[in-house]
Automatic annotation (TrEMBL):
<protein>
    <recommendedName>
        <fullName>Esterase</fullName>
    </recommendedName>
</protein>
<keyword id="KW-0732">Signal</keyword>
<dbReference type="InterPro" id="IPR029058">
    <property type="entry name" value="AB_hydrolase_fold"/>
</dbReference>
<dbReference type="InterPro" id="IPR050583">
    <property type="entry name" value="Mycobacterial_A85_antigen"/>
</dbReference>
<feature type="signal peptide">
    <location>
        <begin position="1"/>
        <end position="18"/>
    </location>
</feature>
Amino acid sequence: MKKNLLWAFLLLSAGSFAQTQFSITAPNQQGLLDGRLLVMLSTSADREPRFDITDALNTQLVFGIDAENWNGAQAKVINNANGFGYPKRYMKEVPAGEYYVQVLLHKYETFHRKDGHTVKMPMDRGEGQQWNRAPGNLYSKPIKIKFDPKGTSVIKLSLDQVIPPIEEPKDTKYIKHIKIQSKLLTEFWGRPMYLGAHILLPEGFDEHPNVKYPLAIFHGHFPDDFDGFRTIPPDENLKTDDYNARFKLYGYNKIVQQEAYDFYKIWTGKDFPRVLAIEIQHACPFYDDSYAVNSENIGPYGDAITYELIPEIEKRFRGIGEGWARFTYGGSTGGWEALAVQVKYPDQYNGCYAACPDPIDFRAFTTVNIYEDKNAYWYESQFKKLAKPGHRDYLGQVSATVAEMNMRELALGTKTRSGQQFDIWEAVYSPVGKDGYPKRIWDKETGVIDKEVANYWKENYDLAYILKRDWAKNGEKWKGRIHIYCGDMDNYYLNNAVYLTEEMLKGLSNPSYDGEVDYGDRAEHCWNGDHTQPNAISRLRYHRMFIPKWAEEVKKTAPKGVDLKSWRY
């Protein structure tokens, strides 16, 4: 009798812990695999699940585990016990029902770095560090399943598809492409590392072989080609019934093409300044770009871009080749980079135009004060606990919290390897940890801030703090060269850091900063100083806005006696 009761108890216990799980193989792969293995569930048939894992309210589901030294012929299991999930933390929290399921392996490779650390990271393969589009990544086609987290099903999935390579862009009359192997980055990462750029040549470049040109450096996310330049009118057969949810517009794809064609006409017109405009490709193992500065974790990208890539571009395409004849501009990530290189390399650049920059004062690191707050995820008092918002619209409606945005990243990759926003900030700004990966600015699951890491960030990458700290030394080099623009309803609360920076800049003296800070009324992310157009249009006009602006202001900031006329034909 006791024996039967014990057996019954064991059966009941086993049933209570039974769970649906996913069994995954990669049957066609040779050798061992490293990477992040992701199972995605979606209720929508409109797109593959891999394209629907976002910070938005309508995101679908993902569960991830690390795969190391994996023989793909042997099944890997993802279940409630080991899969880290977003937006549901555990698989058991997913409602039972019908879903489209897809699995993907974001491949890592092994780097033996100069600092002695060996790390496993995803190398960019020409796509700009996009886990769901990276050539060589393995995935499955979506299939429809019935999923019950309380069931006992074993759902078998096969990584039998491979994302194909990306074709390199081709040179045209106006747009040229360059790629160099960086000596500095190759030495740091222990394998060949490259930098690239797309160069827009000025009108009359071939007809004026003796003219040398200033360099207009547009910073931003990974560009497939030179963006926003089109020599032919919009495609007449282009569908105009597409809806852009961000800007609440139909036919936005045609607007984009029209703006690009209009810029071509302006660029080649009589009165536009003749400069070399470039967009840089500097995707790194952590993100779609490097943030254009030197970093313990990412390497000497600032030096590589400034002292290797840019001189090579100027050499090949007749750039003037002096700091006074270079300026930077960009938005968001590019806005931070534009200001950062002006701050870090004051002799090498002569003006920055930073639109909607990533946090430039870490007292307002989005909605987190990394110096005074104890927790990045919560506002806490004796009797209340509120989640810190991470994303809003122009009316202040919140669609994601800081915690939720970080949970998505942790599902996509451990050890700061998600390739997403908070992780790249951490990779750039943090010191290296004992394991060779970036030290966490805060515990990714709890949000508790590490004040020692915060202080390191302050001394090395808090741009507002560094400007104030070093003003006595570099003020004359920064005077009149700092221009910052931000919407006062920036979706990521980036205007908060701009407010603090503006207050600091206005308090400087000997010399005064003599620059510009401007805000767009109720403008969201990507506002860049144009009060005449909505974001949907102005975000497409960076080149036409800032190149003429700099061409006028350089008359005040250039050394006496330099040539300001030959390139104004």
